[in-house]
Each structure stands twice: as structure tokens, then as C-alpha cells.
Amino acid sequence: MRITYYLEVLSSWCHWAEPTWTELQARYPGRVQFDWKIALMRPQDFPNSPEQADWFYRRSGTIAGSPYMLNNGWLEAPGFDYSAPNLVAEAARSLGATGDTVRLALTHAAVREGRRIGRLDEAVAVAAECGQFDPAQLRARATSPEIRAAVDVSTAVFHSLQITQRPAFVLEDQIGDRAVFSGLTHFAPLAVTIDAMLADTAAYATHRAHFGQPPAS
After folding, report:
1. Residue 35 contacts residue 2 (beta carbons within 8 Å)
2. Does 122 reside within a domain?
3. Is there a smaller number of Cβ atoms within 10 Å at the N or the C end of the chain?
4. What is the CATH number of the domain that holds 64?
5. How many Cα atoms occupy the beta-carbon half-sphere of 125 within 13 Å?
6. How does pLDDT run across 73-120, given as a tens digit for each residue?
């Protein structure tokens, strides 16, 4: 089976979900395929002021039980286009950084260090240092039509699920079952669902070994 994690690099709730994502990968190596995809937030979905950002950060931080508060220093003026760090993360993946390291470095730079990675040059600097990329090559890839198209497609797929909250996790198995979690950051419900889907898939395989494919008529 596979699980797809839909995220926005600058989302605080995606930041709080990262330990769950890491724990899931550690628990199911070789049994579950893990992938992440960008689901861009709209400019109007972001806080309009540092004060508003801090209000949201205090809410999510206390709910997550965090010993630290997130940093609003990355925030730009209302209506700013924050797609740059997402495009850079996708570009880094296309250049070989297929894991979580580069996108996590971008998120950390923003919400922990307050770096303005909404600006393309800053996002490229962070990702190039983390992934050992040539900055010019990474920038060219991030601004290419192919990367923009890939991010737009994954965002459109996210919206086609008729959900609005990030993080979102889509679980799919070989027998056609699907479970969608939107806005959930906790490990337990995801793990229980994965276990149930793996068990059902194994049961189907056992039945097939005993009885083969269904009769044609």
C-alpha cells in the first residue's frame, strides 16, 4: 500500500505533523510506499500580520504540546505569493533529493528561524546548502514550467479530494480501499488504519492462494 502526504512548506500544522510522518516511515519500512506532494495554499490563506500569525501559532503550539513557539519572521505583506519555497522543494526532489530533508530545511528556516523563504533567493539558498546543489541550477529548475506544472497538478489533485486542510494523508491499498485524513496530525489513527488495510490486503492474498481468481461467470 501507499500513503501520500499533501503539504504546504510554510504550514504550521504540517510542521507539527512531521514527527508523525517520520514515525510512520520508521514503523512500516518496506511495507508501505511513502510519498509527499505539494498542495499550495492561496495567498489569502496566510496570516495578514505578525499578530495574527502569533495567535495561530499559540493555538497550534499549545494543541501540539510544543515546548517552543513558532517564528513569524518569514511573513511578508498581505497577498504575497508564497509558492517559491514549494517550487524549490519540488525542484530539489527532481534533482535527486527525493526524501524529506530539503523541504524540512526550508520549513525549519521559516517557522523556527524566521527566514524569509517566501522570497525565491532565500529559498534557493537554504535548499542549495542543505542538498548540496548548485544554486543557479536549482533556481533555474524551480522557475521552470515543468516544476510549476507539477506543483499545480498536485495542488489540483488535493482539491479534487474535496478537502481543505493540510496536512492531508491519503492511504491506498492494492485491493482498492482508500482512506483520507485531512488536518489530522496524530500518529495513532493513521497507524490503526494502515494496520487494518495491510491486514485486509493480506487476507485477500491468502484467499487468492487458496481459491485463485473469481470464476468468469
Report:
1. yes
2. yes
3. C
4. 3.40.30.10
5. 10
6. 999 999 999 999 999 999 999 999 999 999 999 999 999 999 999 999
